[in-house]
Amino acid sequence: MAVSRRVFVATAAGLAATGATGPALAAATARTEDPRYRIPVSPDDTEADLVRKASQVRPTARQIAWQRLERTAFLHFGVNTFTGLEWGTGDEDPDVFQPAGLDTDQWARALRDGGFKLAILTVKHHDGFVLHQTRYTNHSVASSSWRDGRGDVLRSFADSMRRHGIKVGVYILPADENQYLHGVYANGSARTDRTIPTLVEDDDRTPPRSYTLPGTDYGAHMLNQLYEVLTQYGPIDEVWFDGAQGRIPPDKVEKYDWDSWYTLVRSLAPDAVIAVSGPDVRWVGNEGGLARQDEWSVVPVQEKDHGRTDYALAYDAPDMGSRDALVKARPVADHLQWWPAECDVSIRDGWFYHADQQPKSVEQLTDIYFRSVGRNSVLLLNIPPDKEGLLPAADVARLREFRERVDRELPRDLARDARTTAAPGCVTVDLGREREVDRIRLAEDIRHGQQVESFVVEARRDGAWTEVTRAGAIGASRIMLLAAPVRARRWRVRVTGSRAAARLVEFGLYRSQV
Predict the structure, then answer these.
(1) Contact criterion met (CB below 8 Å) for 221 and 194
(2) Predicted TM-score (pTM) of this structure
(3) Is 100 exposed, middle or buried (0-12, 13-18, 19+ CB in 10 A)?
(4) What is the pLDDT of residue 14?
(5) How confident is the model at residue 246 (pLDDT cuts 50, 70, 90)?
């Protein structure tokens, strides 16, 4: 079913030109969001109130664009690649980082051929080692003898991805083992107004604008690194903030300046989604790449720690957005928010490269695809570069095989040119002749929210409509796999439960070629 897609335009570009600083800048940034992206709730709301409010929540333009990506890539790369650790210590010798054969064009070709549209690089992991030429720490590529200290993995990565038509994302972990060892992270400093960027000795920059934002010593350190990444490497489409703490003692955890970090990202990269510990995209709750059977993009949230968007229910709750979940979260939730799920998983057992590990099978990856993309989520697949700075040949081959397998699972949509009849809550497709179908794909027009709570798919057989399959939520993408092909000419989907008027933009019928 063809549909013309209109998107909302809401950016924070130009805010600094107004001279706004600190809370004023944050407030101005918030006003540029679509006001329907989060709606306040209270403990006094009835179930009917909560459902009505949930039906009114709408995604922002950046969230709509992100959900259409379907498959995105992760690249964990850093000192851990060379030490063999998954969790660094922060006191590594920078000279251990020696990717003699670094070829980010090879990464980009492999990802493009694997069907990925956005890739996220670990610019800074728990250990604090930074993959770009930063002014704010010595724990970086600039302190390595690799390329005489002039190497810049982020520069190479960003240039290569864009050359091959792939959007660029950055992973900048809030926790920082190195800055903890140097007494910057969790040093007890007060939040005071900080000027960003903070110019250092021999700094050759003439910033077109600066920002005054509240932050601790470490909060300012993060703001300065964010400023470098978001102003020196071209457009950034996703900023990924992990919530993990690494090896830092629990009683020494920094209280992060989320409000300031979010404000700076919104100002410098207005089209970027802020993911996981961020207001645009949430972690699905596991590292297996698996969404819930019914995954909702509208979920109850609460605000914590200087404006951080956090779960109102447990991050791994089996139900995040149904009517029951909305009611269960009522005592602590302060908003219902468009907060879609990202499903992260590594192609190998570890997140960083280890020579003794092998990639997952095509069958495993395909199952993950249907249980993430097929359940209203975006798949984030990690493919770790090796010590040479290359994606391993086995992984490259597996990415290509994975894309080819998905293409065979969902070949040409049999309903693409079929006669379609739409009525309230029902779409009927006439294929013109009997065809076998074993894959069904549905999508709502999420510009109008996520409304469908239940539906049934039926085929016209022997003069009567016969149920083929049924399920709950749809959202941006729902794919059903039939146990055996069903042969019929006429097909329909009926919405049997909905929060408000349901708008379906896709009713795809496929015959797998596997």
Answers:
(1) no
(2) 0.93
(3) exposed
(4) 34
(5) confident
